[in-house]
Write a structure and sequence with these properties.
The chain is α+β, with helices and mostly antiparallel strands. The chain contains 3 helices and 3 strands. The protein has helices at about 10-15, 40-45, 50-60; strands at about 15, 20-25, 50.
Length: about 70
């Protein structure tokens, strides 16, 4: 069988942890930061974890990330 292709756009946006969860960088920290509170900006710095339903969809796009 030929190799499966990874969706490169998904590979740039998501990474898979050792336990199989999918990490992503939260949106909203690129520009227009003056109107956002320091607490909101601080919470946006941390990476997020996808829900189990969304994880199933993303893992289809990353065949070798398991």
């Amino acid at each position: 069988m030929p190799k499966m292709k990874t969706k490169k756009s998904a590979a740039k946006r998501y990474s898979i942890t050792g336990t199989g969860k999918v990490k992503y960088k939260k949106q909203g920290l690129r520009h227009i930061l003056t109107k956002k509170s320091p607490k909101r900006k601080r919470n946006l710095r941390h990476s997020g974890i996808l829900s189990p339903e969304e994880t199933k969809k993303v893992k289809v796009l990353l065949p070798y990330g398991r």
